[in-house]
Amino acid sequence: MPKSARKPLKGKENDDLPLAQRLTHEADLRKEKREKLKRELDMEQMKDCSFKPKLMTASSSVVNINKFNSVAPIHERVNELQKEKNEKLQKLRMKSEQD
User: Fold this and answer.
1) What does the alpha-carbon distance between residue 29 and residue 6 come to, in Å, rounded to a whole number?
2) H-helix segments, 4-73
3) Which residues contact 22 (CB under 8 A, 6 or more apart)?
4) pLDDT of the residue at 3
């Protein structure tokens, strides 16, 4: 068997694992390292940002976000809405017949 120019690395904790698992583990370690470096870079860039938005405490009432929270979803109200529509149309027909 020809000798390799590389010497095997000693002291690796996962030498006894199959090749596929070692490669997967090493890839995971590299991915974690890249993500950590990216987070650090993002934090470094963000520290220079001085803009801090000041939101109104009553902003939900301004945009009326809570308006629809107490109303049931349309698919649960469809029968009621159809009934109201039909009643309204019936009243309009009766009114037009009276005129």
Assistant:
1) 22
2) 19-46, 59-63
3) 14, 15
4) 63
Q: How many helices (H) and strands (E) does the chain have?
A: 3, 0
Could you tell me if 35 and 24 are in contact, meaning their C-beta atoms sit under 8 angstroms apart?
no
The token pair at 57 is: 């405490």
Q: Which of 6, 5, 23, 27 is nearest to 14 (CA)?
A: 23
Q: Which residues of the chain have pLDDT under 50?
A: none
Structure tokens at 90: 């019936």
Check if the beta carbon of residue 90 is closer than 8 Å to that of residue 98: no
What is the structure's pLDDT at 49?
83
Identify the pLDDT of residue 13: 63
Q: What is the CA radius of gyration of the chain?
A: 34
pTM of the entire predicted model: 0.37
